[in-house]
Write a structure and sequence with these properties.
Helix content is 61%, strand content 6%. By secondary structure, it is mainly alpha-helical. Strands 1-2 form a two-stranded antiparallel ribbon. The radius of gyration is 27 Å and the shape is elongated.
Length: 324
């Protein structure tokens, strides 16, 4: 949990520094709408915050019921005060059923499930970095044979190790699926899976945190990437809609303009006002402000959006949740 908190705070620090860096947001691996790098990073901060909550929930349930005194399955004839021993060992109470106390491994499955989900988030972040490394960032190691290449070794290893933790979770689920009450030797297999999942997640968190802390975003590269792909086309359609055109017509009009721009090797920003007016008389000089990439981000003022103020609020909210 401490390592997850450290990673979240590292992400928040980087997001604060880059809260105004415009970059393309993607859907289907295609440039879709403008966002900021800070906004993109904070998506992972919220994911990891949920991971932290799952770990805390698993810990709370693990500490809730003490199995000591369950015996082999039927309790004990000795005059044992199970409430006293549970309290001394830091549990909230003794387990209510001695058979359940012996045969339960839910806590192993729940903890490993939480770790597998966290690894999934680390893997998604790693995949993004792998995709970005050739044009937005320079924080990769060199190829062993090709001097012109930079390979994202760290993130590729994290992405690969995610499958290992998935395997640990599957091991536990398959192990428990057909075991009758109470104890069976199969349950000894839980140790290897749980310990391996813990060790793997700790290693990945220990590796990715300093990597993110020392990365250097290249805002000029991100801005150039954002200028391509017509990611302000939705804003152009919204502009026409706000001027009174039905959105379906605005959508079609903008799509026609984008098609013409592609054929002419132009961007929407490069069209003259006369060219805009060839498509609709609703276009005025303020269209250039409407499709400006920074304005596109700052105009999305809905809660949780990409404006700089929103990103900074997200950072404050996440930090407050960690410290509460």
């Amino acid at each position: 949990q401490g390592q997850i908190k450290e990673l979240i705070l590292t992400i928040c620090d980087q997001a604060e520094k880059s809260s105004s860096y415009v970059m393309p947001g993607y859907t289907h691996l295609q440039r879709a709408q403008p966002v900021t790098f800070g906004h993109q990073l904070m998506a992972y901060a919220w994911m990891l915050l949920r991971d932290l909550g799952r770990m805390q929930d698993a810990t709370a349930r693990m500490d809730a019921e003490c199995p000591l005194g369950s015996g082999a399955l039927a309790g004990t004839t000795y005059p044992l005060d199970r409430f006293y021993t549970a309290q001394e060992l830091g549990f909230a109470a003794p387990c209510g059923n001695s058979i359940d106390g012996v045969s339960d491994r839910d806590f192993c499955i729940e903890l490993t499930s939480a770790m597998a989900t966290c690894m999934m988030h680390l893997s998604r972040l790693s995949e993004e970095i792998i995709l970005w490394c050739s044009w937005e960032f320079k924080f990769t190691t060199g190829s062993s044979i090709m001097p012109q290449k930079k390979n994202p070794d760290v993130t590729e290893l994290i992405r690969g190790k995610t499958g290992r933790v998935y395997g640990d979770l599957n091991t536990l689920l398959v192990m428990m699926k057909g075991i009758p009450l109470a104890y069976d030797k199969d349950m000894q297999e839980d140790k290897e899976a749980v310990f391996d999942a813990v060790d793997t997640l700790e290693l990945c968190l220990k590796t990715i945190t300093p990597m993110l802390a020392t990365m250097t975003p290249l805002p000029a590269n991100m801005r150039r990437a954002a200028a391509k792909g017509f990611i302000n086309a939705t804003d152009c359609a919204d502009y026409l809609t706000k001027k009174g055109m039905p959105f379906r017509d605005a959508y079609k009009c903008t799509g026609t303009m984008v098609g013409a721009c592609i054929r002419a090797d132009k961007t929407l920003e490069e069209l003259t006002l006369d060219e805009f007016k060839q498509y609709s008389d609703l276009f005025e000089a303020d269209i250039y402000d409407a499709i400006d990439l920074t304005h596109c981000c700052e105009g999305r003022t809905s809660y949780g959006g990409p404006t700089q103020a929103s990103v900074l609020k997200q950072i404050a909210d996440v930090k407050s949740k960690i410290n509460c």
